[in-house]
Amino acid sequence: MTAEFRCGDVALLGATNVGKSTLLNRLLDFKVAITSKKPQTTRHRILGVLTTESAQTILIDTPGIHRPQGLLGQKLVRTARAALEDVDLIALVVDVTARTRDDSRRAAAILRKIQTPKILVINKIDLIDKSSLLPLIEELSAWDDWRAVVPLSALTGDGVDRLPAEIESLLPPGEPVFPPDVPTDRTERWLVAELIREQVFRNTHQEVPYGTAVEIEQFEEPAEPGRAVRIHAVIHVDQDGHKGIVVGRGGQMIKKIGQAARVGIEKMLGAKVFLDLRVKVTRDWSRREGGLRRFGVEE
Question: Are 48 and 131 contained in the same domain?
Fold first, then answer.
């Protein structure tokens, strides 16, 4: 560690589907946040820890800013706004497409009332011609008094290497909070549940993913080296009709979800995994305070 070591909290804020979680995973080179093309995939404040020789950056991934519908959506937006409290830096992530621009403006309007230093991250530059980038940077730069503007592609990695240095320069001096080899504050059980939920999002459609939650019932480390980690999990759905969709005809959908999730879990754990999935109807959990608390949707 250097004599001028820096450490601080950085909130990643933005509309849904602008790529905050993909960016977090790219920066850490470790998957702590699940991703899908569907909005509202992220439900929690997720800490990712990036430690270099000169700084420790504690990145806080947040649910996307959107016009909330229902109790779950309201909770997610409040979770995102609460993450802005007591941080050292805020990074507003926007993408180059027009489809998220209204929600990105809404997020920027929230930030204009906050005195915390802010930077602008323009993601998905791989989707536009380079000649269109400069006018877009000029337009978005006028939204606020940014300390830095960083165009990049979290998907391809183009420009991402510039972001850690820009962040570090704005962090206060301080000692590291986490050991240097720790990428997140989340447990393996929590990460496993998220990897399963990710595959529900990727493989089911319409309102089904938003009414699902995953609960790990058993996480058993092997007694002997080389044996499989045994994981038993329950996918909760909030409507009777959704259970049949998640199970699928002849159990094909739950098999597909399990196979894809197991690949990600084995990669994360570095071990073979036996994964058993069940589907249970927990009616209207996403519409009740008690259900949201049970499945960890915090504010």
Answer: yes
* DSSP conformational letter for 44: S
Cα-to-chain-centroid distance, residue 64: 9
pTM (whole model) above 0.85: no
The continuous run of DSSP H or E covering 111 comes out as helix 101-111
Q: Of 138, 168, 198, which residue constitutes the final position of a domain?
A: 168
Express each pLDDT in 137-179 by its tens digit: 999 999 999 999 999 999 999 999 999 999 999 999 999 999 9
Which whole-number Å values give the CA distances from 96 to 39, 71, 222, in the listed order?
17, 30, 47
Tokens describing residue 190: 């929590």
The set of residues, in sequence order, having a beta carbon less than 8 Å from that of 158 and lying 6+ positions away, is: 125, 126, 152
| Co-location of 37 and 154 in the same domain | yes
> Left, alpha or beta for 109 (phi > 0: left; psi -120 to 50: alpha)?
alpha
Token pair, residue 204, equals: 């089911």
Pure H helices in 186-251: 188-203, 240-247
